[in-house]
Write a structure and sequence with these properties.
The chain is an all-beta fold and 286 residues long. It has no helices and 23 strands.
Length: 286
């Protein structure tokens, strides 16, 4: 069945402190089901967000954004769509996103005597350093929607990924949902998204310690031809444990190389730092 995606934008512009807000709703045109956690953003302008579980979103447009700047809408399995802010009307325009063309059939890789391998840092060290998702300029946790952080890995073998693990040092949320993303790395930074499945997981009840995301059901294979990849977690939804909740952090340590990537918003510019997050994969590699 051919699917199309319609973006129903209820364009409400609310102006305060020179910030405008675009609100809208994302739905699948064929079955009218809301598309949760779609990425929406303006490239390199620190304006980005994700839709919620009902397909609704609220995008803040800062004063440095111009009318001819492009808003990008993307979701795994669909072609990316861009449209200039000046072309968005106040009459709920409909934007259609086509499904990805020429999708390849699933390839099953048969390994000869695969061996377990840990990819990344599986130590939390002394717990003296933390990488926190909180930034001082955020007015609320919703400002973190679409924020990403992750690590660069060098692949020397073909591997099937069993799970992702990271050590949580602070958590003031009754529920947190993240998306797991895989990117190619070029010229030292993440580029094209190589994820073929939308992997969203939830952390409940202010959990702290080593958290495991089971990836076996997703059949994720990474091949050594990729050489370097970036694996990130992206903030897509949160529920506070109380009104003052704001902290969520992962243990880290200083690194001699720039292996940690982060960006504040979807479509924003990637940055990197000399950190080594307690963030690793369990894999079976040939």
């Amino acid at each position: 069945m051919k699917l199309s995606l319609y973006l129903l934008l209820g364009m409400t512009f609310c102006s305060f402190a020179q910030v405008k807000i675009i609100t809208g709703e994302i739905k699948d045109a064929e079955n009218k089901v809301a598309l949760a956690y779609a990425n929406i953003g303006i490239s390199n302008k620190n304006s980005g967000t994700v839709s919620n579980a009902k397909g609704e979103f609220s995008l803040k447009i800062h004063e440095d954004v111009k009318e001819n700047d492009l808003i990008t809408f993307s979701h795994v399995g669909y072609q990316t769509k861009t449209i200039a802010i000046s072309k968005l009307n106040l009459i709920r325009p409909v934007i259609e996103l086509e499904p990805e063309k020429n999708q390849l059939d699933e390839v099953v890789v048969k390994f000869v005597k695969p061996k377990p391998k840990i990819i990344g840092r599986n130590s939390k060290g002394l717990g003296l350093m933390h990488c926190n998702f909180y930034s001082y300029y955020e007015q609320d946790v919703d400002d973190r929607l679409s924020k990403e952080i992750g690590i660069k890995y060098k692949l020397k073998k073909d591997c099937k990924i069993n799970d992702l693990n990271f050590n949580i040092t602070s958590n003031e949320f009754s529920s947190l949902k993240f998306r797991l993303n895989f990117y190619k790395v070029s010229n030292g930074f993440p580029t094209d998204l190589i994820s073929s499945r939308d992997v969203v997981f939830e952390i409940k009840d202010e959990f702290k310690g080593w958290f495991t995301v089971d990836l076996k059901p997703y059949d994720i294979y990474l091949d050594q031809e990729s050489e370097e990849i970036a694996i990130t977690i992206q903030w897509v939804e949160s529920k506070k444990a109380n009104e003052k909740s704001k902290y969520f952090g992962i243990s880290t340590a200083m690194s001699a190389t720039d292996t940690c990537f982060y960006r504040e918003k979807s479509m924003d510019t990637w940055k990197k730092s000399s950190q080594s997050l307690s963030f690793y994969l369990n894999a079976m590699c040939k």
